[in-house]
Amino acid sequence: MAPVVNGRVIFNSIPAAYIEPGKTLIVDKSETIDLEKAPLNGGILLKTVILSVDPYMRSLMNAPDPKKGLLHTYTPGQPLAGLGIAEVIRTETDEAKVGDHVYGFLPFQNYLVLPTLSAGVTPFKILENKLNLPWTYFVGVLGMTGQTAYMAWKEFANAKEGETAFVSSGAGAVGSIVIQIAKKQGLKVIASAGSEDKLEYMKSLGADVIFNYKTTKAAEILGREGPIDIYWDNVGGETLDAALMAANFKARFIECGLMASFGGKPAPIQNFEQTIGKNITIHGFTLTPIHPKYEKEFYETWPELVAKGEIAHKEHLFHGLEGVEQGVISFQDGSNVGKAVIVL
Predict the structure, then answer these.
(1) Residue of 327, 341, 324 whose CA lies nearest to 10
(2) Which is more confidently placed, 10 or 122?
């Protein structure tokens, strides 16, 4: 077999604010690989089939800044990296067999050789798909997206029936699942998004109060519909400030994302003193520390709920390595609805 192109998405330059089309990310197709003869040296040859693009990736495009906790960021000139699914096409180890699908953190390229499935940022997981669900689900509702909503809610929400939860960016991949979890537990849900179709989507998920943050101030809605007991924050900035003012005594804030910071400096927080008088608990988190606690439970319960249609979710599909840039841009311009997935 003749060598084939091993395309890569290269992180080309650090953006000033928003990523620049054709400049921040470029697709390089100069490398090739012989799929039959490439030396494995006891390892595994993988073909990437699904890639996940997520809001956190924008933070990794900034220059390293220890003061902001950005110790490990993307290196200009090197491939972008993130979560994805790859198929085993050759192997010289008994860790996996040809045809297995593995999930993990990988460079955004068509093919890669690993010495073991434990190589990389985190060990690769061999996926079981007993319910024959689309593989794209395993980077979305059954991947980090679903796990973030499920695990962080269980760990931090301490939700009680009859309480009120506010979810910002409620039509997003994570926010839309949080809405459904909260409703299943008997909470009143307030949710915000930035377009009419997203408002309708949140309404279809069961949100009790919906509003467009571009045309209506969060402070106005929360002042009327609050106080809030739980705030799932995907945006930060002015919305976080309004939530602090509308918080109930002993409210729990779950800080999942700060999208208001992506395009520059967010609005300053004016109401932080509310955390003292109201005994507000603020949970900043990443998934890694809580993942082992809930992983087994998640995979034992969540796939069946998804297969039965009891967890609604949307995918925003992009195709080819060229779709990676489109997917990332969809976060900064707000055009994505649901989980952004790249199909190769």
Answers:
(1) 324
(2) 10
Residue type at 273 in one-letter notation: E
Rounded to whole angstroms, the Cα distance separating 334 from 317 reads: 15
- The conformation of residue 128, written as its DSSP 8-state character, comes to P
Residue 257 to residues 12, 167, 331, Cα–Cα distance (Å): 25, 11, 12
Q: Name the pTM for this structure.
A: 0.89
**Residues facing 87 on adjacent strands:** 47, 101
Tell me how crowded residue 197 is: count the other CB atoms within 10 A of its CB.
Answer: 9
- When pLDDT is averaged across residues 44-61 and rounded to a whole number, the result is 91
Residues with Cβ < 8 Å from 322, sequence gap 6 or more? 27
Bridge partner residues of 10 (DSSP): 26, 79
Alpha carbons 53 and 267: distance in angstroms, whole number: 26
Alpha-carbon distance of 112 to 109, in angstroms, equals 7
- In angstroms, the first-to-last Cα distance of the chain is 21
Question: Which uninterrupted H or E stretch holds 305?
Answer: helix 287-307
* DSSP codes of every residue in 103-114: EEEEESBSEEEE
155-187, pLDDT tens digit by residue?
A: 999 999 999 999 999 999 999 999 999 999 999
Give percent above pLDDT 90 in the chain. Answer: 79
pLDDT higher than 80, residue 293: yes
